[in-house]
Amino acid sequence: MPKDNLIVGLDVGTTKVSICVGNFQEGIANIIAACHKPNSGMRKGTVADIEETVSAISAALDDAERTTGTSLSRAVVGISGSHIVSTDSKGVIAVSRADGEITQSDVERVLEAARAIALPTNQEIIHVIPKNYIIDGQGGIKEPVGMSGIRLEVEAHVIGGTTSAIKNLSKCVFQAGLEIADIVFSPLATSKALLSKKQKEIGVLLVDFGAGTTSLAAYEEGEVIGAAVLPVGCMHITNDIAIGLRTSLETAEKIKIKEATAAVNKVGEKEVVNLNDYDPADDQKIPKKYLAQIVEARLDEIFNMIREKLRLWNKEGMLPAGIVFTGGGSKLNGLVDAAKEKLRLPAQVGSPFLEISGMVDKIDNPIYATSVGLLLWAMQQKTTSFTNTAGLKNIGNILDRTKNFFKQFLP
Ligand SMILES: Nc1ncnc2c1ncn2[C@@H]1O[C@H](COP(=O)(O)OP(=O)(O)OP(=O)(O)O)[C@@H](O)[C@H]1O
Ligand SMILES: [Mg+2]
């Protein structure tokens, strides 16, 4: 098995660390290892306990190294959490060449200009994603290099995060023995695995329904038009069930997975959940409808927050390719139908659509959606979106290293 050019996609989630290892053969991602381990060091997608997080990353890495039979040294790392901010920005420059031909260096300068937005001092930019270039007032240009003009503008989408959250995650990755090839806002990577070009073109919303967070990335005309991380996830449903049924969190989690549904109307009045099946010390019998109502109340809150974001992006009820769910919460019974009804959009659970070889069946699981996406990110990366590492001590110049790292995969 080829051991060189191995890429590690590392997703550090609230409840689990997921790692995918692969390489690219003739433009196809070949997955040779996929592992995950529980993580208890995060709260709502952000590092809360460095030691616990390092130990979860190390455990998953050990597994991946055993499977691949090699030592793994660098990873493309996903970042999420409610500290993430996203906003539109613009950049303008004068084209440098006397003959007016636009070069790659002009494009890099105009993207740099788009970075100059006022972020609070404790935040920094993670991505500058160009949506549209404008040359001498004429817009709708996707690839300006080689065209001629005097003035080059870019309309971009900027994603940033809190410096301390980025630093803490980086620290955990370093302490687990990995270098960072790039830091990527997780839903952008997940979208690479789950969304087709066509869906992104006509308009789609990725919803990663995780444990502590629900992350969103909306696309239209092939580009990101909005991104957000909501500080509520599927774990909150477990908490609500524990409170509502007066059970332990462990019992509530089992009941959520086995018995809960978001489809209140489909539950018969006489259906009951026998808590004794989950906890020998508990002999309550609970109407299944009551359980469904608990789920529905929390989902309604999350759907309202999603609707608010869509409204902010002027896309409420307007993304024809609808919602693609992933994350552990996407397995919740009745979720898709509830989303269709409440958000009035088509909805489905996502599954990797790209041609992938190796452990294809294993990675068709929301546990691996982000880590596979991070691998694909490495494959499809262009220099137009990159990590700003200015505030990250000890990391060195990731930008340069990242560019060199990706060069080996680019055609
Ligand atoms: N079959 C199922 N039905 C309902 N919920 C499920 C099911 N399987 C997993 N979950 C829930 O999915 C959540 C875990 O999802 P996931 O692994 O995507 O989270 P994470 O990546 O650790 O968290 P985050 O992305 O918020 O940082 C847990 O709350 C778990 O209870
Ligand atoms: Mg997650």
Automatic annotation (TrEMBL):
GO terms (BP aspect): FtsZ-dependent cytokinesis
Pfam families attached to this UniProt entry: FtsA, SHS2_FTSA
CDD domains (alphabetical): ASKHA_NBD_FtsA
Main localization of the protein described in the UniProt heading: membrane
Membrane topology category: Peripheral membrane protein
Keyword Cell cycle carried by entry: yes
Recorded family membership: Belongs to the FtsA/MreB family.
Phylogenetic lineage: Bacteria, Candidatus Nealsoniibacteriota
Localization per Swiss-Prot or TrEMBL: Cell membrane
UniProt protein name: Cell division protein FtsA
Known partners and oligomeric status: Self-interacts. Interacts with FtsZ.
InterPro entries according to UniProt: ATPase_NBD, Cell_div_FtsA, FtsA/MreB, SHS2_FtsA
Entry function: Cell division protein that is involved in the assembly of the Z ring. May serve as a membrane anchor for the Z ring.
SMART domains reported in the protein's UniProt record: FtsA
Keyword Cell wall biogenesis/degradation in record: no
Residue stretches making up the SHS2 domain: 7-194
Keyword entries, A-Z: Cell cycle, Cell division, Cell membrane, Membrane
NCBIfam families with a match to the protein in the record: ftsA
Matching PANTHER family: CELL DIVISION PROTEIN FTSA (PTHR32432:SF4), CELL DIVISION PROTEIN FTSA-RELATED (PTHR32432)
Annotated Gene Ontology cellular component terms: cell division site; cytoplasmic side of plasma membrane
